[in-house]
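As a point of orientation, let us examine one representative protein, giving the amino acid sequence and backbone structure tokens.
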Amino acid sequence: MLFEDTYLTIEKPSEGIFRDRGSKFLAYAYPIITDQDIKSIVAELKKENPKANHHCWAMRWSTDRSVFRINDDGEPSGTAGRPILNTLLSRNLTNAAVVVVRYFGGTLLGVPGLINAYRTATELALNEAIIIEKTVNDVYTIVFDYLQMNDVMRIIKEDTLDIIQQQFDNSCSIQVSIRKMLVNQALAKLQKLPSVKVKYDYSI
């Protein structure tokens, strides 16, 4: 197989807490759908924790695991976002973000202490998470004549394609999600139908 068509992510948000010499590190792990989700997550946590000293985070996104971002939010460079990201990497998770909210306890932890704290807090949150395997899917829109409805629906059923949305009028369209390794097979069948158009939308 040339590519993996599955990836690991977390099913729903989870939390962990780590304390060291008076400092409190609250870790929040989230599944994310786009790489923009992190903005609203951090904004919400800042609202909930206005007295916290730092809101550090890392995220990993895209089914080929290629997109990642980190933010140390005022902690010494490399002591917060990087250890959070490394924990996501070591567990091979993607489409996930972890934010660690720090309340400073008055004692400096030093670089090794900070790296350990951010990593441990992240691990504790991920230990509480339900890890799930998802398939990499391509989303297509099929446009067809009302009279071809039965043929199109038969292929959707045969290849167990997930319908995302549909509209039926004189001209009909159905948006479906197809597992990557089954795309060629499904498209070949659809393209045999006269005047059926299939358009690629995006991957999930």
The two ends are 19 Å apart (CA to CA). Helices lie at 37-48, 81-90, 110-128, 149-158, 183-191. Residues 110-128 form the longest helix (19 residues).
